[in-house]
Write a structure and sequence with these properties.
Length: about 325
């Protein structure tokens, strides 16, 4: 039996080999003609691998364009989601770095081009900072009523977020609306981190995010509008010159007995340091209130303008 099979296989062996080669050549020709190699372009979401913990990670391209090549038949049921584009963040630390974009392709595909080929990735460390919370009273109390005291359960909060954002926070504030109140009241006040321009810094988280505030009202007091006089320490750096100090607001409404108010035309701030001032900026300072005087907002903002002294030749 085996001898018979061997005989059948060896009979006309050369012709069979030639026929097999011809079949392979013909199959290759037909496949290349009917399913030729072609190029395609896909927009792929950029991702990261080996990202270190404790950083906010941003890069200057959310998507990259992959140009690939492969048999036409492979493009029939393929989409952007079948590709992966990524950057490897292994061993990176704080700062901005240029990294090469890498790609993973479906089987049978060949990578022709990546656009962009490299991206800049920034690692911004997540940090925390303790800061005192403040309250701004808005609106007006009822007739013949003034705000005597504002107290809160939480005086110091933690702000957390990317260092670049945390560094811009100058104040954490809550707004207390009077809305014509004449009696003492309490309310839960949300806390917001803001920068020197008075804009919210949304990239940071305030912990706790709110606090309970108690407002004590006083009756039978006389009111008077007076100017604010900033008081500062003579500790500005030797390389700088003070140009101006502008209180905001420039005037405040105070309340007290008519006898006490009669001799008051201005209110001073507490003396504040200029030692850390190297450029124009703001400081939040408390008002120095005489005995028997109350004010709705006990803190004001002082806009500070400085300039460098001319260097000696």
């Amino acid at each position: 039996m085996i001898t018979r099979i061997r005989s059948l296989f060896q009979r006309n062996l050369v012709a069979k080999i030639i026929a097999l080669i011809a079949a392979v050549v013909l199959w290759s020709y037909v496949m290349n003609d009917q399913n030729p190699s072609t190029d395609g372009t896909f927009m792929v979401q950029l991702s990261t691998v080996n990202a270190p913990e404790g950083y906010k990670i941003t890069y200057d391209a959310e998507k990259v364009k992959l140009k690939v090549r492969g048999p036409r038949s492979l493009f029939v049921n393929i989409s952007d989601g079948d590709f992966k584009a990524y950057i490897d963040l292994k061993d990176l630390e704080s700062g901005t770095h240029e990294r090469k974009v890498k790609a993973t392709l479906p089987q049978g595909m060949e990578l022709v081009e990546v656009d962009p080929e490299n991206v800049n990735v920034t690692l911004d460390p997540i940090v925390q900072k303790r800061i005192r919370s403040e309250f701004i009273v808005t609106g007006a109390p009822g007739p013949d009523t003034a705000v005597a005291h504002v107290t809160q359960d939480v005086r110091t909060v933690t702000i957390e977020g990317p260092k670049s954002a945390v560094d811009t926070v100058t104040r954490v504030i809550g707004y207390v609306g009077l809305s014509g109140n004449t009696e003492d009241f309490q309310l839960q006040v949300p806390l917001t981190a803001i920068n020197s321009d008075g804009r919210e810094v949304s990239e940071v988280r305030v912990v706790p995010s709110s606090t309970n505030v108690s407002v004590q009202m006083a009756r039978g007091l006389t009111k008077k509008v007076v100017t604010v006089e900033p008081q500062y320490k003579e500790d500005l750096g030797a390389a700088y010159q003070l140009v101006s100090l502008k209180p905001d607001p420039a005037k405040v409404e105070i309340a007290g007995s008519g006898k006490v108010l009669a001799g008051i035309n201005s209110i001073r701030t507490e003396a504040f340091s200029l030692a850390d001032i190297t450029k124009n900026g703001d400081k939040v300072v408390k008002l120095e209130l005489p005995d028997g005087i109350i004010v709705t907002n006990q803190s004001i903002t002082v806009h500070i303008v400085v300039k460098e002294k001319p260097k000696k030749q």
